Amino acid sequence: MATFLYKLGRLSYRRRHFVALIWVALLTLAGVGAASAPAAGNSSFSIPGTEAQKAFDLLEQRFPGVSADGATARVVFKAPSGEKMTDLANKATVRETVEELADGSEVARVTDPYQAKAVSKDGTIAYAQVSYKVSGMELEDSSRDALQDSARDARKSGLTVEIGGDALQTVPHTGSSEIIGIAVAAVVLVITFGSLVAAGLPLLTALIGVGIGVSTITALAGALDLGSTTSTLAMMIGLAVGIDYALFIVSRYRAELAEGRDREEAAGRATGTAGSAVVFAGLTVVIALVGLSVVNIPMLTKMGVAAAGTVAIAVLIALTMIPALLGYAGRKVKPMGEKGKRFGRSSKKPERPNLGTRWASFVVRRPIAVLLLGVIGLGAAAVPASSLELGLPDDGSQPTSTTQRRAYDLLSEGFGPGFNGPLMVVVDAKDSDDPKAAFSAVGDEIKGLKDVVTVTPPAPNKAGDTATITVIPGSQPSSVTTENLVHGIRDAGTDIKADTDASVLVTGSTAMNIDVSEKLNDALVPYLVLVVGLAFLLLIVVFRSILVPLKAALGFLLSVMAALGAVVAVFQWGWLSDLMGVEQTGPVMSMMPIFMVGVVFGLAMDYEVFLVTRMREAYVHGEKPSQAIVTGFRHGARVVTAAAVIMMAVFAGFIGSSESMVKMIGFGLAIAVFFDAFIVRMAIVPAVLALLGRKAWWLPKWLDRALPNVDVEGEGLRPDSDRGDTDRELVRA
User: Fold this and answer.
1) Contact, 681 vs 640, CB < 8 A?
2) Residues 6+ apart with CB under 8 A from 180
3) Exposure check for the chain: N or C terminus, fewer CB within 10 A?
């Protein structure tokens, strides 16, 4: 592989005009496609194989025209102090608002609070429910404006009016902190390279790669049913790895220049060696992201595949456009150790060993102490993960400044905490001899269960073979008590099925959230086995070792558990919540653990490949194991540190997002990179390798013969005489 990439790097350097033209053309094409593509609606959220989804599909069949997936809004009214919603003046205001809402072209129906008995027992709070023909993200702005205008008009009478539901759902924004993340990356690159030109290359190529990836996602969003979060996460990951991959190749290029090679040769060798590491690091990220498809949640699969495509583009750009841009830069990119007058000392002065060399030497001398300290520290950070509670965000997790959250709180105050998470029970009596009796039996059975506040009468369809029953729990939607109620209704449905031949299904947003959490929990172990297993095999090929990939996988588990612990501490327990902009603590998003496992595993293997391949290269070229560790850190620690800081800055930039899911993922990935890069890869890895010595690079002879030689170390690029000398040194060792 090193030989092929070496030739590719030299070709890109020589034909830089052609390479640059291709990438600019692709960026232009993707941009035009994105600009001309029709606006995509909200990505459909379906969970195949779950009972909630089966009930939802049954409703679509048996209740045609009901728009089961349509947006809903609850307009909540609260009377001024000392008044009731049943007062004549307040009644008139509410009915006027209902009539005004019903005039919307996308409105399917509006319920009158007084006819639907949607007034609290104390008479102070009432609500009108608005159902739309289209989903929340497909609503026209005019419909949202009309909804908000109606609430504004009603407030003029003195009523408190708030709006809940998904009708006000909008595309999330990340805020200015994303730009701050890129600015931090730029500063780190300037410090690392000591040159504005060299620092600009990784930023430029990363932005081009992300531009192509995100524009392509936008162009295909309508055709592939991609949601707004898909492009946000692709941007987050693509930007981080794009900068890192380019950073490693530019750094290796400067190192090759420092050894006296001409610029074209240095570009070729940098692409052949560091580029090989980029390819395998990118493969681990792609495997982890595409592997999310085993969960069988379409939205998660699309997010993973889209992000994986952006990573693949980042790899291709690093291998081709970076050598081309190095050709344009010429002497403006200086050899390693030689900095411009503004950024560093002259290379003529002797320098003492760098920080990476000094740190590695310390770890090699004190491996047991460093190992114990690192493991105990990560173990302590992982303790909160034992209290992990999973759920999906609803209006209760919104900031208190939003009307959605205020409507949520008003409904809880007036009708109880369970009112915000009603359960919809669907009774399929098509095979029953007496459907009406079956409907009544289900209602009576549910009334006898714990934590049930209200059970509405069955509402059958026109055919009379299917009915819906709304159940109001006594507990809030995300509570364990509500989850137990859902399972209790489903268990009761088994007995009803045996007696009446009628099937009982539970759906609604609360039941769907419960099913999603259980599905993700069930998929976590198979996902880990698949992703870690494939990456383990890939790393055996890269490192030609059994223990090094095993150590890499165990280190990853430490870092991801510590990161989950940090997420629980901030978003569930509320530690540092003000600093992170978390206004409402609660359960961690259901998708967070498995998504973090996928992304963090890929990123963790990045640092493993970049750092350990340099150690492997030194070992193959004849150095002793302990000296190879120091050599790997001398050449790679500064760059890996810069890459980690950049990636943390990029991910942390998304903490400013208005979307709670994006905020949580941004924080989780940023803290996971910190744990993995600075504790696992910089401390635990060299300590373990120092303790293992030559055993770290052991590989059974039969497996060594069976594995393909990918030559990540660039051995094929060395002169035959040098390779012969190295072979003799290894034999003597």
Assistant:
1) yes
2) 649, 653
3) C
Give every CB contact of residue 534 below 8 A, 6+ residues apart in sequence: 287, 291
Q: Indicate the helix (H) or strand (E) that contains 411.
A: helix 403-415
* In the block, residue with structure tokens 């009576």: 444
Written as six digits, the tokens of 553 are 């996988």
Both tokens of 342, joined, read: 């503004």
pLDDT digits (tens, 9 = 90+) for 22-66: 999 999 998 888 888 765 554 555 677 788 888 888 888 888 766
Rounded CA-CA distance 525/491 in Å is 26
On whether the CB atoms of residues 725 and 573 are closer than 8 A, the answer is no
CB atoms within 10 A of CB 128: 24
Among 93-102, 275-284, 575-584, 723-732, where is mean pLDDT lowest?
723-732
Rounded to whole angstroms, the Cα distance separating 624 from 399 reads 57
Burial class (CB in 10 A: 0-12, 13-18, 19+), 325: buried
How big is the CA angle at 312 (ends 257 and 200), to the nearest 5 degrees? 40
Mean pLDDT, the chain, as a whole number? 82
> 477: which 2 tokens?
């939607």
Residue 727 scores a pLDDT above 50: no
Paired with 426 in beta bridges are 468, 505
Structure tokens at 93: 């205001």
pLDDT tens-digit series, residues 206-259: 889 888 988 888 887 766 666 666 777 788 788 878 888 888 898 889 888 888
Amino acid at site 597: V
Measure the CA angle with vertex 139, ends 210 and 156; round to 5°. Answer: 120
Strands (E), 100-172: 107-110, 125-132, 160-164
For a pLDDT cut of 70, what percent of the chain falls above it?
A: 88
Amino acid of residue 600: V
Rounded to a whole number of angstroms, the CA Rg of the chain reads: 30
Token pair recorded at residue 188: 């780190």
Tally of CB atoms within 10 A around 35: 10
What per-residue confidence (pLDDT) applies to 280? 83
Q: For residue 329, give both structure tokens.
A: 């830069």
Q: Distance (Å, rounded) from C-alpha 500 to C-alpha 363?
A: 71
- Token digits of residue 540: 């055996």
Tell me the pTM: 0.77
Match 């008479």 to its residue by tokens. 123
Angle at 280 between CA 686 and CA 362, to 5 degrees: 10
Distance of alpha carbon 235 from alpha carbon 4, whole angstroms = 30
| CA 252 – CA 504 distance, rounded (Å) | 63
Instruction: In whole angstroms, give the CA distance from residue 131 to residue 71.
Output: 6
First vs last C-alpha separation in the chain: 27
At 658, is the secondary structure helix, strand, or coil? coil
